């Protein structure tokens, strides 16, 4: 029974040890302290260190998304924008279902009911403008024109076909879906002079603006003011919504009938915690309380401390060291200088890795593996030597009685042999 429990204990220990070994330690590379370096250069150094250091069997880098969440305070406006986008996507799906219903009514020659559903769908496009794709407005206008055509409302059919071509001059209608008479009308409308889009010019507080109208990208020219090409004053499109977007800002949505006097974008970026000076090398000093608190919150086992600056010579000097959470053990600060960011990152990374053991532990001195350590000469015990067994064999064969005393410092062995009877 004792043997059984002993075997179970050994197995349990082996399982726990294996699980522990299979779980990589967590490495936090959060920020570097910089002087006289641009944001792009800082980002390149940080990216290089993560790529070079955060790949190991013993530890793994904490993902950027997790780091961002840990040091950011959610912007309420961003959450509102995300919710609005979800609502628009849901509304977009509902309008698609309405279009399917209208197509079913059209196929059943119930053209008046089809027009009613399609007009409702068209008016609802503004409620889905953030999720709108260009095909949906085109299909709604096409079905409206076809339904009006079969109701013998030629003028309305021509207006809808003209609006379709004003939005998408390259539109093509399917000969399998529509009769020749309707396609002939469409081609006649195509020959008409198209509506001329106009420039809306407004001051803007951001650059890099992109725009869409009814799911279709629109031309934008940026300079001292923002110039947007739109179908202003169009008889059908005038009440439809325009979307202007810039990365990191809430989209601006407005009706063609009432464009704003100024394009004032509002940031939706999360508020980032001030990390100034928190992750710079500390040498042999004790880790600051805030650094220990942050490391604990991240559940980081290892933290990289680094600083970089541009020297008067033009070279970049990069200093870095490891610190281990819990034990507080730090590696020496390593340093490299080079005009090339890639080179200085490689030099520092290679030296840093010399202070990490295979199991992901920080070493205060350069780690030397067992295979690399010089081995002291080991004296073999007397009972493993050839001469001992030779003497023993000779004594046995001879059948003589003898005593052999083999002496070693603080070690004595007496062997007695009795003659055979």
> How many domain modules?
4
CATH superfamily of the largest domain: TolB, N-terminal domain
Distance between the termini: 46 Å
DSSP E strands, number: 17
* CATH architecture type of the largest domain: 3-Layer(aba) Sandwich
For the record, the CATH class of the largest domain is: Alpha Beta
Order of helices and strands: HEEHEHEHHHHHEEEEEEEEHEEEHHEE
- Tell the overall outline: elongated
Structural class by sheet pairing and helices? alpha+beta
Beta-strand residue fraction: 15-25%
What is the tally of helical segments?
A: 11
**Biggest beta-sheet profile:** 6 strands, mixed
Overall average residue pLDDT: 86
CATH topology of the largest domain: Rossmann fold
> How helical, in percent, are the residues?
25-40%
* Radius of gyration, CA atoms, in whole angstroms: 39 Å
Instruction: Give the oligomer, counting copies of the same chain as homo and different chains as hetero.
Output: single chain
Stretches where pLDDT is under 50 for at least 5 consecutive residues are: 12-21, 397-417
Molecular structure report:
The structure is a single chain. The strands form 5 sheets. Strands 1, 2, 3, 13, 14 and 15 form a 6-stranded mixed sheet that branches. A hairpin with a 2-residue loop joins β16 and β17 (411-416). This protein folds into 4 domains: 20-72 and 274-371, TolB, N-terminal domain (Rossmann fold), CATH 3.40.50.10070; 76-191, Serine Threonine Protein Phosphatase 5, Tetratricopeptide repeat (Alpha Horseshoe); 198-255, no CATH class; 382-416, no CATH class. It is of the alpha+beta class and 421 residues long. 39% of the residues lie in helices and 18% in strands. It contains 11 helices and 17 strands.
